[in-house]
Records
---
Amino acid sequence: MFSKNINKVRFNLTLMDEGEYYFDDYSAMFYPPSNTEEESWQKRIAGRILVCSSSIFFEPDDSKLPIMKFPYKDMSSIGAWLNSLSSAPPAHLPTPQPIPQSILSPSKPTPPPLSTQPIVVEQPSPTRSAFSRLLSFSSLTSKVTTPTPTPTPQPTPIAPTPTIATNPYTSFSVSPNPPSPLLSQLFEQAKPSFLASKGDIFYVKSSQVIEMKENSRNHPYIFKQYNNIDFKFSFNYVKQNIVLDVMKVFHNYSGKEKIQRDELIKQMVEDRENKIFFDITQLVDMNERNILELKCSKISPLVENPGRLLITNARLYFQPMNNIEENRLKNYSLQSIVRVLQRRHSLREIGLELFFDDGSSLFLKFNNTITRNQVYDLLVKHLCTNIMHINEQANYLLKWQNGIISNYDYLLYLNNLAGRTFNDLTQYPVFPWIIADYQSTTLDLNRKETFRDLSKPIGALNPTRLATFQERYHQIPDDQPKFLYGTHYSTPAYVLYFLVRQVPEYMLRLQNGRFDSPNRMFYSIEETWNSVLNSTSDVKELIPEFYKPSFEPSSRNGGGGGGGGDDNFENGIFLTNSENLPLGIREDNNVINDIILPPWASSPKDFISKLHQALESEYVSQNLHHWINLIFGYKQKGEEAVRANNLFYHLTYEGSIDIESIINPFEREGKEAQINEFGQTPRQIFKTPHPQRLPQQLRNQNLKIELSDLEQNINFIFDELNNFNINELNNDNNLNNNNNNNIDNNNNINNNNIENNNNNNNNNNNNNNNNNNNNNNNNNNNNNNNNNNNNNNNNNNNNNNNNNNNTNNNNNNNNTNNNNNNNNINNINNSENINSLNNNENNENSYDKINSSNNSNSSDNIKNSNGFENNDNNNENENLNDENENLNSTTFLGEERNNSNNWGSLNFLKFNQNIKLHKDKISALYLSNNSETIYSVSLDSCLKIYSLKEKRQIRSLNLCNLALSSFQLSKDEKYIIIGSWDNNIYVYSVGNGSISYSIPGHSDAVSCLKLHNNNILVSGSWDSSVKVWRTHRQSNGAISIEKTPIADFVDSDTEIRSIDISSNGTIFCAGSSDGYLYFYDLLTLQLIRRISCFFDELVCIKFTPDGSRIITACIDGSVKLIGIEGSEIFSFKVKGEIHCLDSDGSSLIIGTDRGLCLWSLTTGTEIKDSISPFLSQSSNESIHSLNVSINQSSNKPILLTGTEAGSISIWQQ
């Protein structure tokens, strides 16, 4: 983001022309034109001369005076000044004759030859400026404004006749006798004037001077026409002929054809840069080892500053080729680099942007792609150890889904990933219009009408205007690239349209020293919204500055040259005319000043704050993925873009043109200018639909678990320290008692924020609240009452009442919001009444179909489709309805029986006992509802039932001669459905202790089974088929399966290894041994899609409890979290082969041939052994099955693991 950067000098590189090269600056004196040279001497002005490739600048030390710019193309001559004849045109002088050596002193050099450049005379205007007041005769100066007034004819001034006098700086004297005419002419040419007698003087004869930055203000430039007068200067500390020769070369180049001129200047620049090397004396540590040194350029808005890049084993240095920057040399620690992204610049893959841990960034441009890639590989693969690598994108998506990072931060991240940067106006970050109401006196975030439809591009919001675009689209001939919109949503002009008040110098650069027409300037928020809603030439989106949170560090989004920030930066400053810029008067006679805000905003800061609240609201959170699909995703281009009315001119898309292949420099430059001015579409990030953000209730729940884990980790450390103290001091009873009291206090503090405790813990919690009140005046009685109510609700959970349990979870979430206001849960209180409803998009593709069906049950109680009625209890009502519907039938536990219960933290599980039940690996196991009975099947073909209460095996059955692959337990635990390698599916009666029913399931081994409580069974087999069966309850209460499946899918080419069904029973997925994931619709019994997830066997599939995400695992250790729409959300790899996994949507536990792994699906991080010691205890076991459930008596998680050797381990807190 832009911020004001007040340099010690006023000159900056934005004052130069595009493509102009800055060489050096020199301390100098300027002698304003006057009647006499003595008067010029008296009025001399100190300053600096800046030599550039297209012009010369003079910057006075007095900031009240303007900077003067002398373009070479407007100069008639430039050279050393001896007297008034030095700059006279050749026609006014006789043919120069050589001066005899007997006359000239041998100590003085021969005067330089006179210029032969023609004079360009332009008539002046009477208007005067600051420099005009320095001139003694008004006939020599004028000031031109826009529009240019009619010039007043005036005579061309004639230089005064010089007076012959003795020159004290020459060795010759005037003869007393009248000289010959030839000698008189020679004396006139060789005689120094008054100024020349003071030192070396040079002149610039120019017909136009551009004045800027008068009084250091960013006002429009003043273009002044002169009658080809001489502007005289002298250098203070450098030999004049050295600099003068360079300026003469540039002046000579300015008269050549553009192609030739550019090539000559390019060669001159390269010669200069090849002679400049890094100054190794500037190294921070002289022991650093140089690894790479090369030329590159630093890119900032509208500026390219060349320099040298040096990379050592410890730091990265950038040394500019010039001294324009305040800090000549900048260095960056390699350890501070947290991200390196490859960038485009001028449509070429030659850019690299480095991001640092302080939030700043550095954009570098290299000569070619090969060099860029070499630097990228060196930094990413070898030197920068703190860079986030392959999981970065998925990690951000996962954190956004879970509410750890805000919508604002996620959009900034996607912009960065798509090549958008604050350092390049042609690729500036783009943000959506969110609010559609700019007329109301209050902003109501609970009304749908307040928000813009995020599922449509700006150009499609107005149906009437869209019809116009579509009509033009169909009129474009088929042999030409078609488009809907002739303008883009992000261009440099649009960015500066919004930011002209904050960085006016950028618009002056783009607009050739002028501001845009007043009628086109940013004037009113409502007017701009009406324009983008109705105008056929305006479809622009917004920029991040409209949503910048007040707590965001101002430097976080940027780097040098416009990305960084001033710590005193105030939100909304770009909406105020703080510099009193003369932005003009509109046709309606209104003066353009501060932006006119909507009635609901009291100030610019309040306006930005409310827009940020709207961006973080639940409505936007649940619909932002639609806009992401349009700008960064699968609807950005191609047929999906056509269907979504989101097609722009073809040249705006990446890869539409190979700029390197264009040989003609004029054509190449024209294409670059066209695309840069017209706009560039961001790089496409997602090829499949972007996942939706989790509903607020689930986000809060996941955050609560993470916070609980963090708190338990802290208390665990305190406990370990206190235990250590107890052991050290166990010989002193008094000290022991004190230490024990400390431990109790620590445990009490820990229990204060853990809601799922037993009755005794609840009592401790009440006491803890009182203790905390005594020690912390910030806690009020209301919060304590809330905690007490939560504990009472938790006690009721022991009665297995699912509805009460869900309600208690909701209350806990609310308490989490109240007690953790500093977390990254943005504006939850402002949007707590907004329902998480997935708005269907306006196309008929299968992705939208899945989203609609998957969320159908979760919106049963919604009165309308706006998503604004609170439905926090939808899941509870759904569970109650399911219970009522199945009172007379048996439902199945499967994996969804504890969906209403999160596990909480698994970090502090401890090994309880090990039971040896089987002779071969255990393929599946479950724990009963009362946590007293273990059910398991094994490859030894046996079903085992073990009583934890009685500590003995109570049932063992050898079902068949082949292995048992999987089973599902009915909810009343009376029946077990088992899949076998003998191709059959068995129904086992626990009460009778025998097989009550069996059917031949497949033509090969049954590899996996899943059941849903609406009496649907899905089976997979080695014969590559997936079958859907309907189950029934017989008159005697037994379970039966229809002999003919209701669906038989043979879409896979290889064996089916895993199956799972979504919690609402609308979707199921199957994984094959060649790594493909198949999506099936259980309502229509059709294949929806297949995705290639891995290159090896897909061994595990697990839906998260909300049904919106699928966890998949490959036998090679790869794990992917995939959205229901098919997009990859997160991925990682563990050591060893994966055999099984389980998840509650927040935590993920994995069984491998090297033991257990634990990951957080909220933060996307692995839980290490140091935090969860039980993980290391399992490292010697090959885990082939596992199950996590909640102990109904203690309300704490229990983990069962089945090993390759046939034993079962029990882990609990």
---
Amino acid sequence: MASKGQTANVAKVLEQCIAGEVPESNALPQLLHLHRSDARAVVAALAEKATTVVQQADAGQAATRAGQFLINVAGFLDRQREPEAAPKAKKGAAAAEAEAPLPEVSRPLLDHILLLSGGKNRGSKDKATRAQGCTLISALVAQVPEHKAAEEKLLEFALDKVPSIREKAVRGLAGLKSPTAEMALMARTTDQCTAVRASAVRGLQVSSSTAGTLLERIDDVEACVRAQLFMRLSEQPASITELGPAALARLVVGLADRTNSVRSAAGQAVDAWVEHLGGVLPLLSRCDLKSDEALGEAAAAALAARFLEEGSRVARQWLGQVTGKDKAKTLPDGPAPVLMARLALANMSEADREEVLDVASLVQRAHAVLEASQKKDANSTWQEYLLRQLLHVVALADIGDEGLRRQVEKLAEAVLFRSPLPCSTVTEIGTTAGTFRMAQSAIDLGIVILRKVSGLVRFQAQTAKHQAVEARCSTRVVLLVSEICQPFETSTADEEGDEGPFTTRLSLQIQELNGKIEELQHTKANIDQAKKKALAAEDYLQAQKLKEQTRKNEKELTSCVEERDRLLKERDGVCLRVLAIVSALLRWSNSEIRKDPALMGTLDQILLPLVGLPALSKEVEVAVVSAICLFCVRDGAVARSHWSLLLELLRGLQEVEKASGTHQPGTEGFAKLQSDRARAAVAARALADCARIHGGFLDRNEVLSCAQALAAVPFSSRQVVIEPLCGYMLSLGHIYFEEHLKEPVLEVQWALGWMLVEAFKQRRQPEDKQVEGKIKLVEDTPSTDGQKKRGLSWVTRKDEAQSAAKVDQLGDMDDGSEVTEAIAMASRMTQFFALLPKLPGKHGAPMLSLALESVCESGLWRRGVLLPHTSDGQTRWLRNFSWPELFSFVHERLPADMRFRLWRCSLQICVNDPSLAPLAEIPFALASVAADAPPGASELLQEALDLGADPEALGPLRARLPQLPEKAGNKKQKLPPAVGIPSASANPKLLVPPAAGKAAEQERREELASLGINIDVWAPGDLEVPKMVPQFHRMRMAVRRPRGAQKKGQENSAEVQNPKENALPVPAEAAAAK
């Protein structure tokens, strides 16, 4: 037992130090002396003082300083236990064994604080007390390893509702090395509080199990979280082996982050990696440079800007002068050195660039890479990438010598003849990424270099002299195309003896072979059926004969298929190369097409004949459509002549919608669906571009037909038209609005509505991380990438959730197929609607209002209804988009005189569906903006209540709006209509009864269906009302009784509601009515 005198002495020293009378440096030796004389007294005094600190936690900084002093004392006394054992050992082993070692201080103190904190699954209701206990436990747990009770208590604190307590618990868990603590930290990396996320990221050790969770924070919206990620990575440079190539490239791009603190932290991490790997090139070689070329170039540019000396050395090695042809043909082991050299060269001044770069050696090396890229081996892919990097440098170089100019011209011609074709797939054509990749192809760079040696640049003043040079350059390219086709024309004509283009002759042969193959396949099916019948009849002689016929049929079928594939490869190779050259010329030429006979002639002599070829492959067909669309964008007359074709291609998306899910990947039907969707994507962009560029050439109906065709898109293909629609509305929205004032253009208003919903689509939390506020500490089956980051599609019905995986077989037709692209698209949609009311003119704000009205009037608002979803016995309330966020976004961006329309359509929903409107949180959204309510909102609310809206749900809104004055007899006085409200009669009706409102919505849905919009896929016509109410809705509408005992006569008094912002009290008249 500790003596009371010693305990009092220890308490006195502690009190003097806490009060500031004795410095801590003097108090610690005194406490050490007392600890050696009576250790139990010191522990008892510390425990007593800890009790006082926890009880007086609301003292603020004083309690915090006292608690920190107690932790320092315990740590100091525990550190002084071991050094005192050495002198005693010199006196003899017997004497040392006789004396018992000093007991620990931190462990019993920690046990006492755990008792004060309530123990397992118990705790104080006061947040200051919980915070103080969590602070003490987090500090002591680092000094007491493997304390199970402390770890369990910190796990409880990590789920506390107070963010500061969760942050302190995370710091404590960071000092533990158990798997349970690691999983808890991983769960806290997605906490809503910024400080908690930052502490969790800093506390996690980088390993194979935590790398994925840490890398998700690279896109965190808060700079401090991103900075802590890089600080953690800089402390463990050896963990670079746990990072994949794509993730490493994304981390290196952190050197160019928008925030200075993140750039500084990323620099420390990159410096540590460079030192660990032994140079910049080993680091860049580990990054993924080819999957996302823009990201790879950004990473290389950041490294080249940070490590100037090594970048200059690499540029001299691979772009400088080379002596001997053998050295010029030496190629690097990967694309990293040349990419680093190219971007280092771009960062140099003009004088340094001329000193480093040797164009003659560069041309020799480019020829060597071009030859190597022709080989069909494992290195051909990155060698094509390497060729494009060298061509970029050639296009950047200054060419002043005539002999050197001829060498560069020969290189450009060789690239057009023999360079690998762009490797974009059919599904990428028509997308932003696919367009960027095609514009950076080797053939495009060959056209750029050929124009450069001809004295042309992309943007320059157009004069008669420049037009003549442009025409000569176009003629030169067309002659190169004829030279490409000449060997095939000669050889085919000699073999067949027929006249006409070789593509037509080959296409006819392919068509004939297709018919023969189809006939052989039909014969094979008949033989197989006959053989089964013979075996069933036990006619084995006949079965043997049929078997021999099957072998003969299969041999002939194989021969025909091989011949067809050879002809297809021969024809499509030439056609795709010619189309790539023509498309590149159209992209980079600055010539006036009507004054350039060679360029204009390619439309009638090359493109249109290719469209009419029989047995045309899908790749060639999409490439031809893309080239024709480029012609339409360049010339208004061509656009008008092909306008109906572009509209028809875009309407082909309806067939894709009908056939979705009916074809398996790899089949001919699936390839046709992909081709139709790619052609529609190209046509959609061309229509929007032509309407904006040739608006003065096209008539008003043609410009409006573009918007109508883009708006009537099926749901599964909506991503195809989002960017074209945004561009059209920003440039030509005034035309739509003027026509809408004359006669409503329903399909365009509908498109504005679903685009607005797309911008506020709900992003759901992963179910395997957090369920009803409790952490799962066991590993579950990992969810798919789409479900993890975005949840199910906002139009997926409950019974379709299991079959949603079948829909994404068509690529980006499902929400979860391209998660990153979908998130970026939603962000761009938000920017679009934020910019819309700021456009010059008076049409921007009304269009934003029409978008929200479309959501209300078409039934899209039902996608914002909260519905219960049960998973693993837990019920979660989920919705597809947030109506309060959407309504607040639109309300604050509209002028005051236009907000009345929003209130009218919102309250009409409350009248039509009084049971579903609260679940969509429409009354709550109105109450949240009640301070900025338009004039006449009180009258509108009263009219909604009179028509049957839920008075309990609209109670908070009614309490926030001005109350209407009343006459004698408790009759409400009707005020004159507010400004802007129609006053056709003395008592105007702005809302309609529920039956009329539902009939109006059904009529709108039928009109949209008649325009080709499958409205039932986009939005349900009705929803079943859940039998329960979300818990937070009950809390929002909860009432509480006044504190204290009730006096006599108050038993039936009105209950007092919770005075929170989202649950204002019901007016006295409403309470009396109840």
---
Amino acid sequence: MATKPAGEGQASTARRDELLRYQKEAQKRWQQDKLFEVDAPAEGETWDAGKFFGNFPYPYMNGMLHLGHAFSLSKLEFASAFHRLCGKKVLFPQGFHCTGMPIKACADKLERELQLYCDPNKPGSLPVFPDNEPDAALPACVSMTTPASLQAAEAEVEAVAEQIPKDPGASFKGKKSKAAAKQGTAKRQWEILRDSGIPEAEISDFRNSSHWLRYFPPLAMRDMTAMGCGIDWRRTFITTDVNQYYDSFVQWQFRVLKRQGRVYRDKRYAVYSPLDKQPCADHDRASGEGANPQEYILGKLKAVELTGKLAGLEGQGTVYFLTATLRGETFYGVVNAWVLPEGQYGAFRGLDNDIYIMSHKSALNLSYQDRMPVTGHPECLMTLLGQDLIGTPLKAPRSPHDRVYVLPLLTIKMNKGTGVVMGCPSDSPDDYTALNELKAKPKLREKFHVQDAWVEYAVVPVMKIPGFGNMAAKTLCDDWKIKTQGDKKLEEAKKIVYLKGFNEGVMVVGNYKGRKVSEVKNIIKKELMEEGSAILYSEPEKQVISRSGDECVVALTDQWYLTYGEKHWKSLTEQALQQMNTYSDEARHQFQHCLGWLNQWACSRSFGLGTRVPWDPQYLVESLSDSTVYMAYYTVAHFLQEGNLYGEGNGQIKAEDVTDEVWDYVFLEGPEPQSSKIPEQVLQSMRREFNYWYPFDLRASGKDLINNHLSFALYNHTAIWENAPEKWPKSMRCNGHLLLNGEKMSKSTGNFKTLAQAVEEYTADAMRLALADAGDGMEDANFVEDTADKGILRLTKELMWYDEALSAELRAGPISLFADRVFDNDINVAVHASHAAYNSMMFKDALKTGTYDLQNARDAYRVACGPLGMHKDLVYRYIKIQTLLLTPICPHTCDHVWRDKLQQQGTVLTAGWPEAPQPRVALQAAAVYLQDRIDALRKDIDKHGKVKTKKGQQAPPAAKVVHADLYVSDRFTGWRERVLTNLSDLYNQQTKAFPSDVSQQMVARMKAEPSLAGMKEQELKKAVMPFAQMRMKETNQLGPEVLNVRLVFDEAAVLRENQEVLQRALDLQSVAVHMTSDAAAQRPEVADKLSSAEPGRPLVVLSTTLPQQQAQTTDGTADPAQHIARLAVNGSSRT
């Protein structure tokens, strides 16, 4: 836990304790009032404000909730609170996930530790662990030690050195996913539980999987309640067959899918845990989430002679070197095979008395794919080093050479493929470079005992690539001057050649000469397989570690699959995505990318916790497949479970009575069940409840679930409700992971917080404020503890100000001052801007507009009012509006203000969104203008009269400026008028935006302006574009009205009304406002500067004497040359 050192910042907790008191009182009231328990309107009733049903993926119950959970959860909580405040019926339910292997793996791991390290002669004794024990390296299982942002170990190399992208041309990159980050610091399970705060005497109870289900869900409910989440706990549940109602629901769902033909049994490749003896899906993994089976062709290069150590295999079978590749078309250009000299290889027994030379890791994979006599147990006939294999003559399928030789390659990675690579130097920069290096360096050949004849092979062209010819590798290596295997440019060269070869290459050899590689690639692959020259092979795209701690392989498994990717079903799901709000283009693109590659999904498992496949009970429904439409279950859970988390109450509905006919009636508009033991009225209420709340309006989730859970949810909704697209999800809001103080969360470094710890340390409201401030995009957000700390101070100081303001003797009467009107308008701006931000789930913006900006407006109002003081009615309105706008984020404090300070009835949570007239754009602009003028004048006054002196000399004191004359121009003229006219023409009223090339269009249009005709383009840009860009910025802020040739407000009137404000703010004795057309502006010393005045930037003339005190000349007239300061400024610029 990230805590402050003793004594640091902990001198007083009075402010925090004050907020905790309000928090406790508010939550007690909400619970007593059953504020969050909400039902659909009764038959015949309506609710005009509408409904909002939001949900959050149920967290996995193998640990405590942490700030990473709280961040994603806060998105739903803020949205729900906003819609509740607006008067809608809001349903926010929450269940808990227990399906799958993680809990079982943790329990089994603890059981092993207890058996190994506890004294069997002392029942109840604690384990004694040795200091250096390999088991300690097993991955952590409890989520509280592995927060979402913790980076896990991943494979050192990409999916394959010569991999053609699944989506050619794309360069999709992403950060490590959340589940991929769950490996954490290696610890024993006992230590993990102990460090979670579980008493040592209780830890042994966790050897039973069922204990996890009883222990963590109630704590999660406690912590979510403490956070202030408005959850209807009547509808909570856990998954697995422990909860017979939910078990019935999942079985019904799968029977529907089976009936639709969307579940089938087959033998397919799947990522597989040898230890668990079943497929390992994303949620079953400690690391490697998102990794799928990667299919290769294994070329069978026959050993023509068995020399050296291989001679020991003579007579035992035909020996093949198996080379893994994705590019079957390059078999035509093979001139050698490569091995890593120090690599560990083996000779393994294959089928039909064949012997395979390959790495040990790939042999294990292959043994799970029906390619070896015994599944999972490759028979190693001989262990070999790569050096033992160098020089072996091979016969390569489709190569023009009768024999090629095994040569050394120093860049082979033994954790990918078989460790044996075929050499095609025409189209592989690696192969071309390595072969040339061997040819050119006798000492290198000598080092690895390579004979000259083995490398004397000419490059064989395979394909012609536009721009690279028929030997692309040679062309690129020569152009880039790549000479050695260690050249860092090789990787980029390889990517270019492989991608270009796939997309643009044309075969120049073989039966398919003249045809594009992309057209014949699969044909050649099929031929190689049929003629026995190659076999299929798969392995994980990257390293996958199961939660049981073993490294996974790819196995050919016989099990049940969902037909994701099937043409019609995929089309329906793409339609659902099209009509769904994703809140960002980035999220939509990730969904589209996922739907593009997602294919059949193994939906059954042999071990773990969960629901049995109803028609094949030897299998369990895997953990991602029982979590796709459970949002519908929320709508009726309270009828069935009556608030009991485990469905173990004594309600009127028994689990066995909830038949498929009942589910069909409730969810699918099926006929009324015959002979059902559930009362007809209850069945009707259940159906009404579902139809009222569905579809759900929002699913808030981390972005890492797009590639599995969220896309699966879309698929299953379009299947179950294929004929009712109005039931498909309305929106999904995805966020990034959460950093803590700019760093990834890690319990091992102390940079970590559970939800319970954060609420206790900062209070729920200050924590929620920091969560809102953390960020709203899909990039990683940052929870800053200092923001939470300052949140406590901000909230309590605001409460103190409320007390002072509500008890003070404030100005009454008409709201007449300019400052009054501006502040009133600022409140209206906050109301409308905050509503827009909340509605689009931009909570950081909502916090800014509804709290920070509004408080700044209050402070500016207080200053502007000066000795007259603030208006009582506006102060009260401010406090009320501020309280309402902050309620979704800080509900406890706001409820306290509402009831105890404003003396309002009921709770602020349902008080209604405040009404406010539309903001007056002209008044906004006038207020900004006045403040800008004050700032500019202050700078000008500060500079006035100061003279430059030589170094070391003291400047004489400047005379004090006591008077200012402001000369106002009422309209833009000349080229500025043309800029505004052109911008007005280019502004799109529908999209409320300028075109993306507005700058280019403006330059082109302004070239035709006569007054600018002599300027070069660069000079024109420098003169025109700053003004144009300023006006575009103002347009985006205030609207297209600012593009008028006159300001949207009366500039002179604003200045005259605020003469006293200007004098007080600038410490002037007088200010005079003139129009440029007035007689006073025609004086010679002013007239020659009037051209610099423009709307919004008056000409300013400063004086050190008051007009009536100015000295008289001998003829009795004022001498402006003597008494009026010769400094005239346009805005803040000297002229």
